[in-house]
Amino acid sequence: MKKIVKYLAYFVGLLVFGAAALLLYVRMALPNVPAEDLTIEYTEARIKRGEYLANSVTVCMDCHSERDWSKFSAPLTPGTLGKGGDRFDQSMGFPGVFFAKNVTPTGISRYTDGELFRVITSGVTKEGRAIFPIMPYPYYGKMDREDIYSIIAYLRTLKPITNDVPDSEPEFPMNFILNTIPGPANPQPKPDKKDQLAYGAYLTNASACIECHTNVDKGQIIPELAFSGGRPFEFPDGSVLRSSNITPHETGIGAMTEQEFIARFKMYADSAYVPPSIPPGEFNTIMPWTMYGRMDREDLAAIYAYLRTVKPIENKVEKFTPAASPLSVVNK
Question: In this predicted model, what pLDDT tens digit does every residue of 271-283 receive, in sequence order?
Fold first, then answer.
């Protein structure tokens, strides 16, 4: 009996030692994604392309600027472009407190081009820390290198803004899990616009549409529910927004023509459009319509064409649930 107890003690000790060693490895050795030795030429063409991507496709400026949540779709507050500071915490369902960093030259001047490429496409900072994938770097890592170079060139031209943003603080066990997520980028060439479906798939990935428009299980999107909406987004006041179904099913965008799809975006880019004020607790959206609305018509048409090819999934989404009421706004 004593021998059995002794062997069990050894076994438990080995398990504890192994677990501790594994956690130490994850904490100290990961993420293991070296930065490239990279120097980018900041040409006028790249800066222009980067401005378009960062403001209308990948919408980097959405999180890395200040948004006015008193208005519909929370448009950017003038004078805050790239300053960072947007906070995502437990009140919104996140496993910790995460901040969008300052991406003006004040915040990124110490980054080499290779380090910027790495943080955008692999989610690893200059110091080697993994960032939480609320910035959808797994999708950016599949973009054309030239497009990422263009975004970097554009960021270098932003007006410097002094704004010291705190470091993110993931909770346990996310502080360990986080280090296992980053991996090397896998850049893909941008398809020719003439191949509308392939080009639309590329833009849909760059915009990370699937990330918001697919429900999740334990923080991971459910592949078989791709683009069918229903993913919940909690507001600090307790109200819940759910993403729309954008599959070609009739409960999604099945009845929407290409012209109607494009018009849905473009109405927010109209010079006459003024975002209405939204009282606290009433329906609002995290969808940055005023940014996506500036996307080229040709690009929106390509995204529409691609979405028409995804699996139609029936899912009539309950769009919004106020904090203090069981009533909800049903997505039409």
Answer: 999 999 999 889 9
